[in-house]
Design goal:
The protein has 295 residues and is α/β, with parallel strands linked by helices. The protein has 2 domains: 2-74, Sandwich (Immunoglobulin-like), CATH 2.60.40; 98-293, Vaccinia Virus protein VP39 (Rossmann fold), CATH 3.40.50. Helix content is 27%, strand content 32%. The strands form 4 sheets. The chain has an 8-stranded mixed beta sheet. A 5-stranded mixed beta sheet has the order 2-3-4-5-6, with no helix packed on it.
């Protein structure tokens, strides 16, 4: 398992009965988590006195209950700063487990832009699809890449811009685009535009800005295939994230092996990603990632 264990401003404090107790900076939140099927004693004070608690409804969805959480606050990961706020369906605007992937591709980008052997560096162009509030975009920008950030939600793209500003990255080379990811990739292919790195974090189900329906089990392979066609002649990496229950990590390996490794060689690996739990010393699983990269 790839574990996001480099955080200082975030940690999972405890887990029990379908919920997790988390520390986001100075605030403690309780949120539901479908992976937490165990029942353990809730000894920590945060279970009884959280700053906010998201209650899931039996009819679907749910609502926040607040006890002192501000409308907006910030946390940092290394050199990056993220503005957070509680919004619909339990989210805060950040998936902390993705930090383990940010570190991985940032190292690849830095090595190409500024090689450790003293040779001439090369620019790196990255495409971030389903880019949400820009965690991966900020990491790639900070590492020295230029980034095309694509998400179907205008609000999420604006939020990502605010995160870039908070991180001091507003002057870096980035395109912020509100678009349907599949259609954007198809247009990039017709335009002849290519990328050295591709990141995709697709939802299990969603809609594009024009009402386009996305179902991951039907759409993921065609999209990976199209994305492989817009990789550069010497691509650096391809990352796929999945939170879909029932998708084994090896499914992502198979897709990358079929559409990327078959053409470019290199290495494909996949695994679960997770977050350490302070109270138990165990690791909470948080989805899967598939990685392709040059040897």
């Amino acid at each position: 398992m790839w574990i996001a264990d480099q955080w200082k401003d975030y940690e999972v404090l405890d887990t029990s009965a379908g919920e997790k107790l988390e520390r986001w900076g100075e605030f403690e939140l309780i949120r539901p988590d479908p992976q937490v099927i165990w029942q353990t004693e809730k000894k920590l004070t945060g279970w009884r006195k959280p700053d906010a608690h998201y209650h899931r409804s039996q009819k679907g969805g749910g609502e926040w209950e607040f006890f002192g959480l501000p409308e907006e606050w910030s946390i940092s990961y290394k050199e990056l700063t993220f503005r957070l706020k509680p919004f619909s369906f339990k989210h805060t605007g950040l998936f902390p487990e993705q930090a383990v992937n940010w570190d991985w591709f940032s190292k690849l980008i830095r090595e190409r832009v500024h090689p450790s052997d003293g040779s001439a560096g090369r620019p790196v162009r990255v495409l971030n699809l389903f880019a949400y509030t820009g965690g991966a975009t900020l990491a790639a920008l900070s590492a020295g890449a230029s980034v095309t950030h694509v998400d179907a939600s205008k609000g999420m793209v604006q939020w990502a811009k605010e995160n870039a500003q908070a991180s001091g990255l507003s002057d870096r080379p980035v395109r912020w685009l509100v678009d349907d990811c599949q259609k954007f990739v198809e247009r990039e292919k017709r335009r002849g535009n290519t990328y050295d790195g591709i990141i995709m974090d697709p939802p299990s189900y969603g809609r594009g800005p024009g009402g386009e329906v996305w179902k991951i089990e039907d759409a993921i392979h065609p999209l990976v295939k199209e994305c492989a066609s817009i990789l550069s002649d010497d691509p650096l990496f391809f990352l796929i994230n999945s939170y879909t229950t029932g998708f084994a990590p090896s499914v992502l390996s198979y897709l990358l092996g079929l559409e990327v490794q078959k053409k470019y060689g290199g290495t494909v690996i996949s695994d679960e990603i997770g977050l350490p739990v302070r109270s138990t010393g165990l690791v909470l699983p948080c989805g899967s990632s598939g990685r392709w990269f040059r040897e």
